[in-house]
Amino acid sequence: MALFRVLVSDPISEKGVEALASAPEIQVDVNTGLKPEELLKIIGDYHGLVVRSQTKVTAEVFAAAKNLKAIGRAGVGVDNIDRQAATDHGVVVMNTPSGNTISTAEHAFTLMLSLARNIPQAHASMIAGKWDRKSFEGCEMYGKRLAILGMGRIGTEFAKRAQAFGMHVIAYDPFFTAARAQALKVELAETVDQALAGADVVTLHIPLNDDTKHIINASRLALMNKGALVINCARGGLVDEAAAKASLDSGHLAGIALDVYEVEPPPADFPLFSAKKTVFTPHLGASTAEAQENVGIEVAHQVRDFLVTGEIRNAVNMPNLDAKTIAEVGKYMDLASALGKLAAKIGPGQADAIRVSFAGPVAEMDTELITRSVLTGYLSSARNEAQVNLINSPAVAKAFGLVVQKSSVAIETPYTELIEVDVIKGSDEIVVAGTFLGTQPRIVHIAGHNVETNVSGQFLFVENDDRPGMVGTVGTLLGAASVNIANMALSRTADRSRAVTVIEVDSEPPVSLLETLRNTPGILRVLVMAF
User: Which of 15, 140, 169, 227 can bridge 254 by disulfide, Cβ–Cβ 3.0-4.6 Å?
Assistant: First the structure.
């Protein structure tokens, strides 16, 4: 007799349904096209739910889903699922990030070739009854300099295909290490600008967040060679579409191919539609029969295995933890995550290794979850990817060649217990550390400076010359910008050459304030952090 009922509310492949039904413990019901009120009426009977993008799994659905344990999303994006509500109700949400890897990589590569050889324009000319060989002269990809921004699964597959075409590949990703680059036989760029300088072709395979929005803008388009091509099959908003149109009109950028757009679908008066050398497709990166079948099978296996054996793969929210584990290490996890985020902000980019060390009573515990909390904070802070979490953060780190070390050896410290995080790149290393003062978690060390600050809230990290008046200058500028100071921690180097101020503020500092601070004489570095 079936122990679990699973509802498939959006279409997936038949093989996916068969994979679910292959477990005798599971009863599968395929009921697609449900209206929201219809889903609310029946969801309480189900332990598992499989969706694509059509079904909206809202907080109201979770409130009605008294027996729900797992949701499987056949695809990558989970915007149609209220992840916070899922976590609050103890429901694990899993997606299928690898199912469409080949499909998207091939589509991006096809766009590149179509753009280089004017395939759509030549086809339209032929259909119009013309035989125009002179107007559609293209360019070879052999020997061209290709910049890949984002070396995850899709970027890596694109690189392999480009190498087969004889292209010179230079790659940038904040967690792409020298060892990984050497293994893939690509050139490593340490910055976006370094990757783009002198590029003939640029392809994007990165998430969209505050740091990457319009990562391809007017100034970066100017870094590319005259006649360069740009391909975006990742996320709309990575390319400043107005800047791309201006570069095309000026003749600097030769062509652009887009599968994603800032507004989808793009309006009829989309400016780039009037540009000559362009290729556009309607978000088709994952639209192959193979990809659709792959994600259907993958999500079915994940939901089945979780319900039957408890195994979790590709979770995008916090996992369920048993009461004993929460009681033992739960209080350390917020501190560990904050230390990871802080280390990502102030540490060297493209680090080779991250080491987490423990002293005192915490060193006697099973510190695996604490280490994963550090790693999750570190990776999510820089990449801002929802799917980086306690479950998959070690795999993400491994994919980017980041070595994770854990140590419980004694650390010389004045504190009863301490968690210390070292981020290492060659001979460059930064250290942050935290402890508990009473029952309150505190960050107590930042890159050579002993400080004491909270682990939640908005913070400014200001490094400056150690001279009279600097604290007052910073405080005056914050006051002029109507940014209230909630707490402040000060520290300086032993030789009194530099000082650090960690300022907890009540609101997010405006960009204009950050620019003013960075342009103030004596201020060496300004960072914004949110824990």
Answer: 227
Task: Judge whether 169 and 163 are in contact, CB under 8 Å.
Answer: yes
Q: Does pTM top 0.85 for this prediction?
A: no
Nearest to 40 by CA among 69, 7, 12, 11: 7
CA–CA separation, 237 vs 501, rounded Å?
35
Tokens of 60: 């109201």
For Cα atoms 319, 320, 326, give the angle at the middle one, nearest 5 degrees: 110
- Active site (annotated) includes residue 252: no
The catalytic position among 168, 283, 313, 492 is 283
- Where does the pLDDT of residue 232 fall: very low under 50, low under 70, confident under 90, or very high at 90 and above? very high
Q: Which of 37, 133, 137, 264 is catalytic?
A: 264
The Cα–Cα gap between 62 and 56 comes to: 11
pLDDT the model gives residue 318: 67
Cis peptide before 265 (omega within 30 of 0): yes
CA angle 29, 35, 39 (to 5 degrees): 50
What's the CA gap between 434 and 489, in Å, rounded? 14
Residue found under tokens 């349904």: 17
Contact 510, 503 (CB under 8 A): no
In tens, the pLDDT along 105-159 reads 999 999 999 999 999 999 999 999 999 998 999 999 999 999 999 998 899 999 9
Can you give 508-528 as a three-state secondary structure string?
CCCHHHHHHHHCCCCEEEEEE
Domains in the chain (CATH in brackets) are 4-99+290-309 (3.40.50.720), 101-280 (3.40.50.720), 321-437 (3.30.1330.90), 457-531 (3.30.70.260)
CA distance 385 to 72: 18
Active-site position among 107, 205, 235, 445: 235
Q: What distance in Å separates the CA atoms of residue 531 and residue 425, rounded to the nearest whole number?
A: 24
pLDDT at 183 over 80: yes
d(CA 409, CA 358): 7
197 has pLDDT over 70: yes
d(CA 441, CA 438): 8
Rounded CA gap, 271 and 244, in Å? Answer: 10
**φ, ψ dihedrals at 373, nearest 5°:** -65, -40
Q: Is 355 a catalytic residue?
A: no
Q: Do the beta carbons of residue 9 and residue 51 sit within 8 Å?
A: yes
Spatial strand order in the sheet of 26-30: 26-30, 4-8, 48-51, 70-73, 92-94
Alpha helices by DSSP H, 117-255: 119-127, 153-164, 178-184, 192-196, 218-223, 241-250
State the Rg of the chain over Cα: 26
